[in-house]
Amino acid sequence: MNAFKNYIPKILVIGDLMIDHYLWGSCERISPEAPVQVVDIAKETTLLGGAGNVINNLKALGADVSVCSVIGDDDNGVELKEMLSAISVDSSNIIVQKGRNTSKKSRIIAVSQQILRYDKESKDEIKEESTFKIIESITKNIASFDTLILSDYGKGVLTASLCQSVITLANENGVKVLVDPKGNDFSKYRGAYLLTPNKKEAMLATNIDIKDDESLEAALVKLKDEVNLNISLITLSEGGIATYENELKRFATVAKEVFDVTGAGDTVIASIAFALSTSKSIEDAASFANLAAGVVVGKLGSATVTLDEIEEYEATLHKSTSDAHIKSFEDINKIVERYRANGKKIVFTNGCFDILHVGHVKYLQEAKSFGDVLIVGLNSDASVSRLKGPNRPVNLAEDRAYILAALEAVDFVVPFEDDTPYELIKMIKPYTLVKGGDYEGKDVVGTEFACELKLVGFVDGKSTTKTIQKIQGTSC
Questions:
Q1: Where is the active site (predicted)?
Q2: Binding residues for ATP
Q3: Which one in 23, 278, 396, 404 has a CA-CA gap of 20 to 30 Å to 48?
């Protein structure tokens, strides 16, 4: 993920903005006035909805985001602009149209159950005057954006006229336009770089029943040709993402746990736009989007994801390079905080791991079985020399860390300079501290910071010392 952190893409989101309003409470009685529940409201929360959720996802990834939309001259419009300002999103391209209602969806939740939703919004198409003002505003700085996203929620902002004007303007300035479409007629998005319809939307738009790779490819080709796209793309939920540029390519999903798919489509288009804006290929962008979606569906509600979360998630899948698993004290501190906040059980062990052998591997596999995340503290070269003698280590710390990080059982490796990992254990505060069976009856450094201590027996006859003796021909 470091490559994504070296550049901050500038992305403009154009679409239907709305406020998601939640009234949380409890219900213990029925109204005497009518057969309806009475909800005692305890708290209210508001979130950016619609295209706002795409904005939230882009901000979480680290993009510089601007927004363009049309809202009403009402209190909801004022509130929405304040919400955008609070997350440092440029809203200077938002047009206020007199007489229009800014979208606000209010949900009443009682005991975690939504019992009612009421909406206040305008769904008619924006006026031609508003369209003209949007184009006039965007034209002034179109070249400063890396990518444009059209987020269509069918509330009237993204008219056919506006879409075609924006796409033409962007293409003339070499700026990619990505569209999250709505409805079954995608012709208004003609000329966009790509669309991100889900399987159901693609089937409705193409009249093709997608049931296998052959029909999937046919739908992708039809979309590409009829809408004049650079790349055709369809999201397939648990089936991942399919693309067609010159041939069909599929990118498998990487979700381990699915709690809620709310807002996953917004995460996909935001992450693809983010990746393409940093000059990644569509293949890299689709893989990145799958990772982002894998994190988001493991959360409840319309969620977002950060680059750090994606990196950590990728590390647990062991689809990343060993470098991604080797962390500094500062990095592991932040990682541990996030895992602990998500209720994950952290396991810690340490050692020299000079010449890796089957005893090490079995020890680490058993250590990982005690929890969700295994962090291995690795003695530095100087530390190993002090503990094992001047001829050790055989392998340098950089090499030892890289090999350890490649093991499936190991989630993260943290090198340390001291003779003991006391300070590292103090910082991590693992749930389980693991040491070798030879520590039976001995004091173990850092136990006061762990919830439990587990001792793991060694494999008979397997040790670095014995391996060195065998190499030297000195073993008995």
A1: 266
A2: 198-201
A3: 278
Pairing of β 103-110 and β 113-120? antiparallel
What residues are designated binding site? Answer: 198-201
Cross-sheet strand order for the sheet of 64-68: 64-68, 10-15, 147-151, 176-180, 194-195
- Is 266 one of the catalytic residues? yes
Q: Are 194 and 179 in contact (CB under 8 A)?
A: yes
Mean pLDDT for the chain?
A: 90
Host H or E run for residue 47: strand 37-50
> What's the pLDDT tens digit per position in 194-232?
999 999 999 999 999 999 999 999 999 999 999 999 999
Question: Confidence band (pLDDT; 50, 70, 90) for 285?
Answer: very high
What SS3 state is found at 454?
strand
Cβ-based neighbours of 215, under 8 Å, separated by 6 or more = 208, 209
Do 379 and 387 meet the contact criterion of CB atoms below 8 Å apart?
A: yes
> Are 154 and 123 contacting, i.e. CB atoms less than 8 angstroms apart?
yes
Residues in contact with 402: Cβ distance below 8 Å, sequence separation at least 6, in sequence order:
322, 323, 326
Domain-located, residue 105: no
- From 152, 266, 354, 381, the catalytic residue: 266
Do the strands 452-456 and 432-436 form a parallel or antiparallel pair, or are they unpaired? parallel
Alpha carbon distance 115, 108 (integer Å): 6
Helices 329-341 and 307-317 cross at an angle (nearest 10°) of: 90
Q: Which domain holds residue 170?
A: 2-16+48-94+125-317
Which CATH number is 392's domain given? 3.40.50.620
Q: Is-contact 316 277, C-beta < 8 A?
A: no
